[in-house]
Amino acid sequence: MTGSESRLTGPVRVVGVGLLGTSIALGLRARGVDVILSDASPTNVRIAIDYGAGRSAGDADEPQLIVVCVPPDVTASVIVRELSAYPRAVVTDVASVKAPILRAVRAAGADVTRYVGSHPLAGREKGGPMSGRADLFLGRPWVVAGHPDISYQTAAAVDDLILDLGASLVEMTTEQHDSSVALTSHAPQVVSTLMARRLVSAPEAAVNLAGGGLRDVTRVASSDPGLWVQILGANAGATAEVLRGVRDDLDEVLAALSAAADAQEDDAATGAAPWRRTLAETLSGGNAGVARIPGKHGQDRRYAQLVVMVDDRPGELARLLTELGEDGVNLEDLRLEHSPGAQIGLAEIAVLPETLDTVTSALAARGWRIAG
After folding, report:
1. Which residues belong to any copy of the Prephenate/arogenate dehydrogenase domain (predicted)?
2. Residue 319 sits in a domain of what CATH number?
3. Could you report the per-residue pLDDT of 217-229, keeping only the tens digit for each?
4. CATH code, 155
């Protein structure tokens, strides 16, 4: 993006220089945009300025666009303040819920003809201005949640912002957005958290058996509780609807498992136990759901998995990736896991199914140990 001309014509004011705000600012600065930084913490502003994200606010500032990047519980009030302070600017925000914020801004009597909410589906495991990256949004979906009170011409500044940062613009209503993220983000956070809570009182011997499956399910459970209380509270209705469906499915599975535990020998002999069908249909439904998740370049396809044992010493993973490239292997995905109690790592690589045998043979010929 460096050196490319921006679609935006005026200064952009970024309010809140955490991860998203700083990343937006860095991406715009790479295009030569004049970025004005504001934050409740003067220290955060100074850090973001030191990282090249923009400059301090001045009394004569006339921003074309204002991007509000503050926690959800104060987003609406900050939007109202910014609309009042800068009557010529278009205002957007990046909060992960949209309908409640729009309602609150309207209820405050603010000029919603200059406000449209948006939400970039991007992030990192670390927050704060020091974690900001100019390329954070490249190729990521960025929702613009339109409403009848704002014109396409006015909202174009938000579209320009998204395109400048290399994101993929997605148009939705506020209600469509909130129901969608309830399914794809907010309910999964709760499910992951509940599963991780089971580990708190689990025996040490059991926890030591943790593998890829448990790590995958609980990965997002380490998210910031304070932030997620705000997100879940703001999108409570839509998230509860998804979780009620999960609860109903779980009740069916529990009934099937109870029946399986109580099954007698004659049930197994006849093969007529209904619980088998319930479990099979549930698991098959999960397969069908996973197949709908967009993969690499938006493709809905499954890849073959190959697990390679990698010695835990400097340069070994780099050597594996280099040799895959030398053999002409297009790596579709990569996941790393350390083997407990052993000085090796397990690199699970995903390749096209038709190349699996060739890749396996090539790696074996180079001396790599294939674990699965």
Report:
1. 10-287
2. 3.30.70.260
3. 998 899 889 989 9
4. 3.40.50.720
Q: Per-residue b/e over 331-342, b at no fewer than 16 CB within 10 Å?
A: ebeeeeeeeeee
Mean pLDDT of 337-342: 64
8 Å CB contact between 191 and 286: no
Is 192 contained in some domain? Answer: no
CA distance from start to end of the chain: 40
In a domain, 4, yes or no: no
Helix axis angle for 19-29 and 152-164, nearest 10°, is 90
Q: What is the C-alpha to C-alpha distance for residues 67 and 87, in angstroms, rounded to an integer? A: 14
Residue 60 lies in a domain: yes
Q: Is residue 360 included in any domain, yes or no?
A: yes
Give the whole-angstrom CA distance, residue 327 versus residue 368. Answer: 14
Please tell me the distance from the alpha carbon of residue 55 to that of residue 45, in angstroms, as a whole number. 8
Which of residues 114, 139, 173 is at a domain's end?
Answer: 173
> What pLDDT is recorded for position 216?
87
Distance between CA atoms of residues 143 and 115, nearest Å: 14
Contacts of 123 (CB under 8 A, 6+ apart): 19, 20, 136
- Average pLDDT over every residue of 306-330: 90
54 Rama class: left (phi>0) / alpha (psi -120 to 50) / beta: left
286: nearest Cα among 222, 347, 217: 217
Which pLDDT score, from 0 to 100, does residue 215 have? 87
**Domain assignment of residue 335, given as a range:** 298-370
Q: What angle do CA 275, 276, 281 make, to 5 degrees?
A: 100
